[in-house]
Specification:
- It is a single chain.
- The chain has 11 helices and 13 strands.
- By secondary structure, the chain is α+β, with helices and mostly antiparallel strands.
- It has 2 domains: 213 residues, Jelly Rolls (Sandwich); 104 residues, Arc Repressor Mutant, subunit A (Orthogonal Bundle).
- It has an 8-stranded antiparallel beta sheet, with helices on both faces. The protein has a 5-stranded mixed beta sheet with strand order 1-6-11-8-9, covered by helices on one side.
- Helix 4 packs antiparallel against helix 5, helix 6 crosses helix 7 and helix 9 packs across helix 11.
- The longest helix is centred in the middle third of the chain and has 22 residues.
Amino acid sequence: MDITIPEFKHTASLTPAWQQDFVDGLGCTISADNKLMSFPEKKANGSGFFIEISPDVSVLIIDLVLNKPMRFTRMPSEEDFWIVYYDMSDNFSKHFVDDIKHQIGYKSKLGFAIIDSFLKSTYVSQVGERAFSLRLYIRKSFIKNYFKNAVLEKDFKNVFDDKIKKMFYYGHIDSRSKVVLYNLKQQRMDDTNYEFLLKSAAYKLFGYFVERLNSNMPNAGLFLEKDLSSIMKTQEYLLSNLLMPFPGVKVLSQIAHMSISKYRNLYTNVFGLSPATFFKNEKLILAKELLESGNFKLISDVAYELGYNKISYFSLVYKKYHGDLPNVVFKAKSY
């Protein structure tokens, strides 16, 4: 960890009490209802928004651009809760847990983590780049109520062991949660209806999170470092070639230096979906950005740019993923 970057240490809790650290240490200002926190312009442009969903669940969202280098270090908490991280930053950020560095953010795809509140963690984002992240704070005793089944208790015995205080998962943001976060990222925190939008998003994310724990989480998260590195190389390749057709699992497995079967299984375990589905989803997310960019005269131009030869098929898959037809968000190029 780069110790030359100034470090700001703070606490975290299920109540707004933690915000006082930001007021005292950074000079942030807090709204009268203890929900909207604004950063001083000398250090960062942006805000944070915190609300208590219930006595057992809270949500914090941070959206800022650092003007000066800074490391945000969350100190261990005396409260017993999980911190569920979602990171959709525009560029790569770094997350240190137990001094182990994880590259996170929208482009890295390893933007999801579940961390015990008893662990210290440090967040470092790039100066001049938009850092956007959401955290669900969930009391452990509350989440345990969702797992009464004996089999699940066995699968999660280390997670529910109060003597074990550790991060137990790091991986991808599932596709449904990514759509929720992407839509929330387009909103302004000072809008009058932002609290309702954030609550709605938090409930959806919490529901997807519980569903995810119920299904495949016990079988994921433990991978050899060299295998994970190889998988990430193929991820970078896919993200760099979104305007091209899907290259195929054979090509990707060759890049990863794995057999096709090993690559396919490992990729699905790491990211929760197949390479082809990931590629299609990312292409459709890019499609929305291109449609909104104002750089194209016709919707068909966007479709052709992304490699879709039939406009009707492009519209069909776009609506299935985003819920609306392309013309809803399209901004035509003006001359």
